[in-house]
Amino acid sequence: MKKILTIIALCFATSVGAQSIDTSKLSKAQIAELAAKAEAMGETSPAKVSATVRKEAEAWGDLGANMGKAMVGAAREVGVASNEFASTSLGKVVVGIVAYKVIGKDILGVIFGSLILVIGYSLAIWIFLNRRWSTVKYEYSPVLWGMFNRQRVLSSHTDSDVIASKVIGGGLLIVLTTLVGLQTIF
Residues 6 or more apart from 30 whose CB is under 8 A from it? Predict the structure, then answer.
């Protein structure tokens, strides 16, 4: 991992050094200021990149510890042990709030994205299987001495333009549903 970060840092450092700026219209003070800013921007050493990545990893690693500290702090304020506090109704609310702050948006994204996918795919299947614009001939046979009629499809005919519109509409719905649903989830 350190080698990859070093290579990326070197790529940025060489690309900064390879560019030249036309300074013919600037004063000497402005040129000196630009040179100082460029030097400050070019100070990307592997040690600095490694330190930045290490700080970010530590921040993510401390996330679980911070959740525990929040629970212990809330329990200490009430004057109850942490495990007993977590089993009370107030403790459950605090755990829910802390969990929502940590992963709430991700869970909501998965729930709403899944709903979008299910509803969109269901509508697409309904478009493909619906016979609303078809000519269908049925045969009816009496059941229970004529009280009810059982219908059986004898033939079905759909024009080619209706089939094309169903395929295009259903296909577009599937593509849009997939894009929006997965974007919401991820």
Answer: 23
Domain ranges of the chain: 104-186
Assigned token pair, 138: 């049925």
Own/partner long-range contacts of 140-146 (Cβ < 8 Å, ≥24 apart) = none
Element holding 108 (H helix, E strand) = helix 89-129
DSSP structure class, residue 147: T
Reported as a single tens digit per residue, the pLDDT across 59-94 is 666 766 776 777 677 667 666 676 777 788 888 888
Rounded-to-integer distance, Cα 144 and Cα 141, Å? 10
* CA 186 to each of CA 2, 40, 78: distance values in angstroms, whole numbers, following the listed order: 28, 36, 38
Q: Is-contact 166 127, C-beta < 8 A?
A: yes
Q: How many CB atoms lie within 10 A of CB 181?
A: 20
Q: Which residue blocks in 19-88 are alpha helix, DSSP H? A: 28-41, 46-78, 82-87
- Tokens representing 131 are 């016979």
